[in-house]
Protein 1
Amino acid sequence: MQTPLSNRLRKVAEYVPEGARLLDVGSDHAYLPIYLIEKGHIDFAIAGEVVKGPYESAVSNVANAQMTDKIDVRLADGLAAFEESDQISVITICGMGGYLIAEILANGRAKLDKVERLILQPNNREDELRNWLAQHGFRIVAETIMTENDKFYEIMVAEHGDMTLSVQEHRFGPYLNQEKSAVFKAKWQRELNKLQIALSHVPISHEADRFAISQKITAIKEALNDKS
Ligand code: SAM
């Protein structure tokens, strides 16, 4: 039976170069590494998990898939799941908040020097993550936005290098803001609607709150405008 993999993780898988040695942090069921090995796209991965329940389900899924020789499941916090001798070339960190992803990267920054590519799928605070990448010697080389089960997901691919982003690019993504795809517009239109409703409920006397929301609204309107 083929591994059940969300379209979100399939998209992440597309950015994993053939033959990569992968660390999937927060692997949960280890579906992503199993899928990539099943396809013959890679032949070594570490599935890292910090919580015992998901770790055990990863161990049993890898055993059921008869991949124990190719996928090492490790109970570990973030980048503690690998050593230099594992020769990891790509790290995926998906399905967590942007702040947590940045924290995981920061806690193991020294180990990232030999890693060629990070593929990150934050569930929120994408701006926080872009900020961390820019300040720690990474540049974004590709981005995607997609929708599944009525949720929007952004995927960013980063490699070593310099990156300077404008305020708008930090918030909306350098490539996504350039492309302005239909999904991008739908995401930010939804956010705009929420903020406009929120603003209508803030009393006129709460000037600072109204100003903060209005600024967000202005930035989104600018991002939604094709000429921005
Ligand atoms: N990556 C899978 C995906 O995108 O579908 C699973 C996402 S799940 C919502 C997040 C997983 O990350 C959980 O299984 C959680 O235990 C794990 N996790 C959270 N913080 C972690 C850390 N510091 N190190 C390793 N795993 C972590």
Protein 2
Amino acid sequence: MRLKRALRATVTLAGAGVLTAAMMVSLAPTASAGTTLRASAAEKGRYFGAAVATGKLSTSTYVNVLNREFNSVVAENEMKWDATEPQQGRFSYTGGDRLVSHAQANGMSVRGHALLWHAQQPSWAQGMSGSALRNAAINHVTQVATHFRGKIYAWDVVNEAFADGGSGGRRDSNLQRTGNDWIEAAFRAARAADPGAKLCYNDYNTDGINAKSTGIYNMVRDFKSRGVPIDCVGFQSHLGTTLAGDYQANLQRFADLGVDVQITELDVMTGGNQANIYGAVTRACLAVSRCTGITVWGVRDCDSWRGSDNALLFDCNGNKKSAFDAVLNALNSGTPIPTTPPPNPTTPPPGQVGCSASVSVNSWTGGFVATVKVTAGSAGTRGWNVNLTLPSGASVTNTWSATASGSSGSVRFTNVSYNGQLAPGQVTEFGFQGNGSATGLTPICAAS
Ligand code: XIL
């Protein structure tokens, strides 16, 4: 029954028209001189994130490096199924909520990891199968995505569902045995629960064009063609001492399917090549305009799950390693994400000074979800607002990552506490859901 209800509640975005209000331009690579990962990534319209163990947020060396260098976080374990639903139907959000608060207080976005995965399942779920497991899994997706609704930039809806080796097929698991459509059912439930979050498929050993990444590629292509709501693919990138020569080409072929790509769990085996590989991965992301950010899987070497591999960017005392320099240099010389130019650069219209905004709308009969991208001008912002005039008959029913005043006609959206401050060129997104149709929206951004 739960499954039926969840599916009925699903917003179908199939056949949705995507409208972009302003034309995009490509920008040539520009050198910049950011000194922190977060500032340099933001200058290029990207985020730079770290996996966080919330128990370490009271360790000063750790938190100082985290807050100085990173503007995105993901819970290393606290948002996984075993942590969030230790007993069936009893949810526990203490660790996840703590991470979200830390992020909001420090101008960081949050990746959600992971709604469904064959590993780190609570023991009650490990023992389930068939429709009971399917219903429990979809309920888990709905409950957790609803709890964090409006606070998550991107969710790893499904993690590691493909097999290693040459088959290119699915990994066997209790979830897979509930039927091949478990992944799309999870994406639909996640979209219905949090229409503002980007929904990602995430996996490892996908660092180049190989049988496993091609299996995933085929799934994403199929999902896009059938309107299954998927927005992004995460490449974990737990790397050894070499990097596949077609690492960037692989990211690009996914981007060309119409999804964002993200490097989600980067860590690299120590050794002579470590800094080079870190630099090459960063350059690859920046060379792909739909690569929206990079997350490393931990802060200091001794925080890493990879034991003695010394796989991260900072040593155990919080000192920068040469791998850090390689990443920072790559960020500073990378290509900015194409941004929306003001209509006339010499005489910007009133309201466009200080920031610009563009909107994309996914609509279906009777309703829509709009995502608005706010880009700070060269002075950065302390706060911003975006004015929009909705067509007659359209109204806003729900807003995330901004506060709306008014719900029809002329509506003003103002930043919330954690996304008002933007560095020069930094991009943030907010969104709203509404009734009616929302064609031809022209957002006007003003900075304070
Ligand atoms: C790891 C964590 O880092 C460890 O603390 C935990 O014991 C096991 O999981 N792929 C993933 C991550 O998607 O969730 C894993 O994280 C690393 C591999």
Protein 3
Amino acid sequence: MVLHPELEGAAEPLIFGGPAADGQRFAPAQAEIEQIADRIVRRVALRRMPNAQKRLAIVIYNFPPALGTVGTAAYLDVFASLYHLLKALAADGYHVEVPHSVDELRHLLLADGPAHGADAHIADWLSADEYRRLFPAYTEIEPYWGPAPGELWRDQRGIRILGRQFGNVFIGVQPSFGYERDPMRLLLAKDAAPNHAFAAFYTWITHKFRADAVIHLGTHGAMEFMPGKQVGLSARCWPLRLIGPLPNFYVYSVNNPSEAAIAKRRGAATLVSYLVPPVQQAGLYKGLRALRDAIEQYECNPDPALVADLRDRAAQLGIPMESSGDDHADVAGLAHELLRIEQRMIPLGLHVLGQPPAPTELADFLLLYASLQPNGGLPALIARGMGIDYQQLCARLSSDLAAQNQMREIEARGRAAMLAYAEAHDAEAGARAVAAKLADLVSATALRPLWPKLAELRNGLLANDELRNLLHGLRGGFIPPSPSNDAVRNPAVLPTGRNLFALDPYRVPTPVSMQRGEALANELLARLRAEQGAWPQSIAIVLWGTDNLKSDCEGVAQILALIGARPVIDELGNVADVALRPLAELGRPRIDVVVTVSGIFRDLLGNQMRLIDRAAYLAATADEPAEWNFIRAHALAQVAETGISLEEAAIRVFANAPGSYGANVNFLVESGTWESEDQLSDAFLSRKSFVRTANGQWREARGLLEGALRHVQATFQNIDSFEVGLTDIDNYYENLGGIAKSVERIRGNAPPVLVADAISSPGASRIASIETMLRLETRAKLLNPKWHEAMLAHGFAGVREIEARVGHTYGWSATANAVEGWIYDEIAATYALDDAMRERMAALNPSATAGVVRRLLEAAGRGFWAADEATLNRLQEIYQDLEDRLEGITEERSVG
Ligand code: BEZ
Ligand code: MG
């Protein structure tokens, strides 16, 4: 059994001993004890040493390495945050030279890098001799990366340390994993060591710069993902070797409990949480707005001639519109699609450390929260005041224009009330303002239950302890703990600026999450049955830590429900085992599942892996008819064909090898070097084909994974965050796309790819096809001026965010062929072919702007986008021009 102190709140879960080989004594672990002692000495020093003497290293990232990517982190404007941090440090007595502006800071960090072929300014060099002397473990890197100092980030003077010193504060750019230059490494099943430059970077910080503490700025870097044990790391494991004795403050996104736990466990980090921008409604724009207006015209005057116009417009915009023979119903369906886009909740812009959101940014968010309360929350109360049954209204939404208009009006009233609430000078005044606004509709008594929760949200969002607590920690002070979640799911994550914990993994899935998981499993089955005409025999499911930690393992519960199993709770209240539900009670066949878990899930939720494995085993060995138990049917077939044991044939949980993370499909796609789609599935299958045997060891079992995937009729993942969607990060296409591509290869045809959407609108099913979700996501974000203006307000970083979304969209083409042509048309029109927009972006971040155009050309080149000749020629010209200008910058600088 492994305990998880970091999930429960401990800051540095370090091992100092364990049972000796004879099992009789407790044996101290000398090297680890020394490391812990060193770390404590450094902490105490932070408390004693005057700030003016302290030397701080702030680490930012550059992944994938490129000129336009330096300083990216999840929903964080890194340069603006850095700037505020430097000012706060100066005010707190540190010796730090603060540039005059964010732009100057960025310029100083990046500007002359390109002249030397580097992505950022070169602060210093670590010579080969010094590197070998200061980091004797280099010999263990050499088998993987060649003789020290290696080939990466290096010139004749030694290994380059990118970054710049501002007085006693060094801002450094963390090197990346290093396989970008050698993408075929990505196909290997296992990583084995950081590269020399990575090790040199931390060696330099520790021994040359002599930092007293390190701050990792934003979610997330690569240090804590370096290979090594997954639990109980030793002082010889790479992450602890790299961080050594240094206190490690890690500014981490509040909504990411799983990777946050890894940062603590493997990186000895003390977390300081940061807020992500509160979600707001996407709204309508351009053609979508015009379509909405046209629908309103039709409502005033339901002339059949207008319907033809609506059909044309919808077709041009790529919005599906039924032709049922009932025009009115078809228009209502179309209007409902528009409503879903309009109401889609999206985070706008980026967060700046220490800055609370403006009240106007909070209204939609508060309304969302108030709508998620029992029985329909605030909107239901307003509806009742208007004499409307809210549940019926939701049910009529997709087929009734009048119902949609009523819903809009309810929302408008709710939003106005929430805006008044956010703008009031305190929560009490806010409550009075809302009561006044809604006086004609809702009684003060009915509103009362809302106040404590809204006050918690409002006060929590407006108070912001991020900089304050970070400074306190740097003085050796205590950083208080906090849960980790989307703020709308759990307002207790506010105020931010705290050290994140997760949950007790022996208590989940809970009865409540079992109920929800079962409901979702039933929805998924109903949909597949309707589409495929029979029960699906097998579903491949991607499981992540984050959403499971946020939802008390609803994802695990779904899987148990599909199999027809339930948790067994022991006398201590722990989930100790699973049992099969009788078929008669289940009333349907047991569905086979193939579960690929993230490396993070494997590390944090090993007990849940065991529960699923055990449920699958119980099903495979149950004496039940094959047509009622697809796991048994498939496992017996596998036994008959290959002669393996039934136990092996029933293995249904697959993970990365210990100490390795990710499927690497994203890195291959990103690098553009893949030649055939088989390489993408190869990466996925080779990385994800590890299973844990009964005695707790791991072994590679690609044959078992491929055998299980042969029966898969659909692939599925929960998108269980209000804040992180399908195109916000590359990991969705890496995993869900990666498995879809693998099933396609093994079965010879592409499976439907389905997701469960956390943010479904009232009355709508949560299950959606990947194509539907991508349409919605792209319209709400990438193509939406409200979204891109909010990003561009952050300049350099905002352009990089746009480029990243384009890259992730393209990733969905590469893995699941799920991107419709109009999406590329519109991306091209919005960002590349529009001269004003392109020039504006190029002025802010030329490299990322060129990246957008390059990605579009690649999409066309690989046949994902059937652009016409003229468009492609124009894009080529534009790309050439942007590249010439980039080279121009480089040459000018090197001459100067
Ligand atoms: C996880 O929580 O398992 C996860 C988070 C981010 C990317 C991939 C996986
Ligand atoms: Mg990650």
